[in-house]
Design goal:
It contains ten helices and 19 strands. The protein is of the alpha+beta class and 372 residues long. Helix 1 crosses helix 2. The chain starts with a strand and ends with a helix. The protein binds guanosine-5'-diphosphate and magnesium ion (MG). The site of magnesium ion has 3 residues, from helix 5.
Length: 372
């Protein structure tokens, strides 16, 4: 539609812009180089100049994000990978505390006001099997990833404080979980409290379509206490059982593909991005593109602040070496060369610019209409 400008069309068909403008003029269309062409105009111009025009979605111009799910399903070299878990729930129901209890470290104590400031992503071992956890503050990063279609979550754990029950954000999370199609496990937290009423919570959740297995439904409700550590093993075991059914796979030898869950500009390190690997093995020295940023991986730093050489599927680390800070939800792909990575990044830059231009034009048109 209004995505192609007159000068872009002229460039594409390799004809002087003045000729294109003249043809349009002869048709009674007063257009200048920066005006956008509609489909009808493009059709007429194509006939006039005897060129065949295929309108390509600019998304295809930087389509380095191949349909991975399909690739992996067909990939005979894919092997089992660990599950990636997102813990969600109403504020103060114990998401951070639960993540702490799970990795037996104390993150929340250092947090300003007890509010999670950023996504943490880390992997724990349960009976020799790995599980990666994501922490989603306010679900913003999670929603962002879903919008981009790059959600990495395999299983959603909904935390509900057993003494507080279903709250507005619990309902939001239920909605997100249903939309995502990811299997759900409910962690009934704060079971150490005398005021805990697990059956009341089960009833409330069942009302919203999350039916407990022991009530004939299909969702596991695991009583836990982030405070005492009770039920944590049970929760992890249930995650592994759920993951088994999902048959999660990846090919460790494929070109690496990862997703950014968090990013920032760090003093001394420059742009950094916490990523989760979806496929392949991400290595120090890899050339990568990540949206409009690119670079060569200088260092991979794991959750214990240790430098590692490579990162397997479903594992997470901070990537150092990009030239710009990528957005969360952006896909990182390993490339054959620096040149290739740079080319993709540049195409993406152009695409982003293009999107901005068409947006600004649209809003200008809207502004004008509203003024009339
Ligand atoms: P978040 O907002 O969901 O991340 O919740 P937090 O993990 O920050 O926990 C909110 C409050 O509940 C904090 O004061 C925690 O100490 C407390 N809390 C979390 N889990 C438990 C639990 O299992 N038992 C008790 N008694 N308190 C808990
Ligand atoms: Mg928190």
């Amino acid at each position: 539609p209004e995505d192609i400008r007159v000068y872009e069309f002229a460039e594409a068909i390799k004809r002087p812009m003045s000729e294109v403008i003249k043809v349009l003029f002869d048709l009674g269309l007063m257009m200048t180089k920066n005006d956008f062409l509609g489909n009808d105009e493009i059709e007429i111009l194509s006939e006039e100049f005897d060129v065949e025009v295929t309108i390509v979605d600019p998304k295809d111009a930087f389509n380095y994000e191949e349909d991975l799910a399909q690739d992996i399903e067909k990939d005979p070299d894919a092997t089992k990978r660990p599950p990636v878990i997102t813990i969600m729930g109403h504020v103060d129901h114990g998401k951070t505390s639960l993540l702490d209890a799970i990795r037996k470290a104390k993150v929340s104590e250092g947090e300003a006001g007890g509010i999670t400031q950023h996504i943490g992503a880390y992997t724990v071992q349960q009976n020799g099997e790995a599980i990666t956890f994501l922490d989603t503050p306010g679900h913003a990063a999670f929603s962002h990833m879903r919008q981009r279609g790059t959600d990495v979550t395999d299983i959603i754990v909904i935390v509900v404080a057993a003494d507080d029950g279903v709250k507005p954000q619990t309902l939001e999370v239920i909605k997100i979980a249903k939309e995502s199609g990811a299997p759900v496990i409910v962690a009934l937290n704060k079971m150490d409290k005398e005021t805990a009423q697990p059956d009341m919570v089960k009833g409330q959740m069942a009302e919203h379509g999350i039916s407990p297995v022991d009530w004939g439904g299909d969702v596991e409700f695991i009583p836990v206490s982030a405070k005492s550590g009770m039920g944590i093993d049970d929760l992890l075991e249930n995650i592994l059982i759920t993951a088994e059914v999902l048959e999660l796979r990846a090919n460790e030898n494929a070109m690496a593909k990862a997703t950014v869950v968090e990013s920032s500009l760090e003093k001394g390190r420059g742009p950094v991005a916490t990523v989760i690997v979806q496929n392949g093995t991400l290595k120090v020295g890899d050339y990568v593109v990540c949206g409009s940023s690119y670079g060569r991986i200088k260092a991979l730093i794991d959750e214990n602040n240790k430098q590692i050489k490579s990162l397997l599927p479903s594992y997470t680390a901070v990537v150092v070496g990009l030239n710009e800070v990528p957005a969360s939800g952006e896909v990182m792909m390993a490339m054959e060369s620096d040149k290739e990575a740079k080319e993709y990044a540049q195409k993406r830059h152009e695409y982003d610019r293009h999107i901005e231009l068409s947006h600004s034009t649209k809003s200008t048109l809207e502004d004008m209409t509203s003024m009339i």
